Amino acid sequence: MIDIKKLLHDVEKTKEMLPTINIDCSLVLGSGMSSVIANLPTELILDYKDIPGLGSANVAGHAGRLVIAKWNSLNIAIFQGRRHWYEGAGWNPIIFPIILSKTLGAKTILQTNAAGGIRQDLMPGTFMIIDDHINMMSANPLQGPHHPELGSRFPDQTEVYTKSIRNILDQAGKTCGIELPHGIYLATSGPTYETPTEVKVFRAMGADAVGMSTIPESIIANSLDMQLGAISCITNSAAGISEEKLSHKEVLETTENTKVKMKSLLDEFFKLLATT
Ligand code: HPA
């Protein structure tokens, strides 16, 4: 369950460590994508271990740093790596980036993640715009006592991934010549990858890609009325779709190979976001 008192206290403590600028947008970077922000003019870099409430990201490929930077005239809070439900540290560190972002004034959140491709056309290296999600984590961060600070008791989820942000991503993809199929993201709790039978069931349910993250943060951002976009980098074919066994090494290799493409997409996205 969320420890709301601790969460809000940690957010306030962290705010004191940050420059007093209004953040326009936050970017949460998934596995292996931390390095896409190389060469940005940074205001401040904080290690997660020094941020109360975040703690060390223990997953290879997650740098574990909060970077405040200027990106095409926007002030962006960049979370290089996320915490996961399977780490067993509870919801606080997972949703902390969203609550901090909201407190710093961010109206928009963009998330990236690594995912296994279920739909035929979603080959490794493809970026997929998330249109909607299926929560198969057997858990929801809003379970437990209702905290009005986190929105209503029963948040509507008709449009978790904001249409106008998805349109900006479409536009950014077109300008950069990057094909961006849309799809439905399904998350399990992990840390095991799926069995081939699970993948078949998920396909029948309407899932196009599968991962172990993103949905909790999306639930909170939606509940807080924030604009939200999310991109899955398809790093591998999901279990049983190809003969290959799955490994985190392969996930990191694919994200490494797509980082130039991700950087140009994000460049264009923030350019367009600044004009809206
Ligand atoms: N399944 C779950 N999570 C993942 C996968 C996958 O195939 N690839 C990258 N993250």
What does this structure look like?
The chain is α/β, with parallel strands linked by helices. The chain has a single domain (4-273), classed as Rossmann fold, CATH 3.40.50. 31% of the residues lie in helices and 24% in strands. The chain has helices spanning 4-17, 92-103, 163-176, 196-205, 215-223, 248-257, 259-274, and strands spanning 25-29, 42-47, 65-71, 74-80, 108-117, 127-136, 182-188, 209-211, 227-237. It has a 5-stranded mixed barrel. Strand 3 and strand 4 form a beta hairpin. Helix 2 runs parallel beside helix 5. The longest helix has 16 residues, at 259-274. It is globular and about 50 Å long. The structure holds hypoxanthine. Residues 114-116, 193-194, 210-212, 235-236, 238, 246, 251 line the site of hypoxanthine.
Keywords for this structure?
single chain, 276 residues, alpha/beta, Rossmann fold, globular, binds hypoxanthine
Question: In summary, what is this structure?
Answer:
By secondary structure, this protein is an alpha/beta fold. It has helices at residues 4-17, 92-103, 163-176, 196-205, 215-223, 248-257, 259-274; strands at residues 25-29, 42-47, 65-71, 74-80, 108-117, 127-136, 182-188, 209-211, 227-237.
